[in-house]
């Protein structure tokens, strides 16, 4: 932790300013495993998974436990995920414009670089998918580790066969895709 603070201080000195509202370093508690505590309650809480770079749910017993526990996704995101992802966590700027440009941004919910149309942009903007991958790719979820997700039926068309990688059998397996959504 001291090393992180030293690096942050060094960057502030080089930049000539240290603003409190800039991206902060996450606390060490963000790296703790979720701890349900010793009581028997079943309270749904959020914790930051430092391996997957995601805020995930777990059930807290109601007493003891550790500090990697949040009441809402938003609290978890603000305290742990966004400081880790830095500019890669910045939301897309919602705007209406007549003529937009195509660029790429990292979508922290989908955990991948996505194409988007923009007029103005923030720090989570890249001219190419490769540039986005170079800066934010380390936070991307390996698609081979994602669970099978049939999506949802969004049209009158019938289901179509698709494939997913089953990490337990180490093989691609067919499934019926509904037509929209999924992963």
TrEMBL record:
GO cellular component, one term: extracellular space
Record GO terms (molecular function): serine-type endopeptidase inhibitor activity
Keyword Disulfide bond: yes
InterPro entries reported for this sequence: Kunitz_BPTI, Kunitz_BPTI_sf, Prtase_inh_Kunz-CS, TFPI/VKTCI-like
Residue span, BPTI/Kunitz inhibitor domain: 30-80, 88-136, 144-183
Signal sequence region: 1-20
Key words of the record: Disulfide bond, Protease inhibitor, Serine protease inhibitor, Signal
SMART domains: KU
Pfam families found in the cross-reference section: Kunitz_BPTI (PF00014)
PANTHER family named among the record's database cross-references: BPTI_KUNITZ INHIBITOR DOMAIN-CONTAINING PROTEIN, KUNITZ-TYPE PROTEASE INHIBITOR-RELATED
Protein name: Putative kunitz-type serine protease inhibitor
